[in-house]
C-alpha cells in the first residue's frame, strides 16, 4: 500500500452516489431494499435510496476497522441485525464505502444469501485485495482513503482510553 492518500470530498461523494446509482439503473437492477453497512455505508445507502427512489432502507452494523489500517482478525456483525424474515424474497442492494479486504461485504452477503431473491453490492471504492468484487464501483484505488466524515478526529472520545 502506498503512503499517499485518496481524498474524497463531500462534493465528490455526491458525484459518486449519482454515478453509482446510474450504474444500477443502466444494469436494469431494481432493488426492493438498500442494506447499508454501518457506519461507512450509511451515507451511500441514503443517497442511493433517493437516487433510485427506494424508500425501504435498512442497516447492519459490522465492526472490522479499529484504526488507520488496523482491523480485527474477522469482521463481527453487531446487534441489532435485520430480521431475515423481513428480507425474504427481496432484491437487495448492499451499500458500503469501501471493499478493502472484502470480508465485511462477504459476511453481509452470507447473512443474506439464503433469504433474499438476489443481492448485489455497491461501494464507492474497491481495493485490489478484496475477496468480493462489488457489482457497482465508483473508483478503484490501493491508497488509504480519507472520507470527509472521518477525516477529522471525533469531538469526543467514547473509547474509554
Automatic annotation (TrEMBL):
Family matches, as SUPFAM superfamilies: PRTase-like (SSF53271)
Record has Ubl conjugation as a keyword: no
Coiled-coil ranges from the UniProt annotation: none
Superkingdom, natural source: Bacteria
Protein's recorded name: Phosphoribosyltransferase
Ranges of residues in domain Phosphoribosyltransferase: 12-150
GO molecular function, one term: glycosyltransferase activity
Keyword entries, A-Z: Glycosyltransferase, Transferase
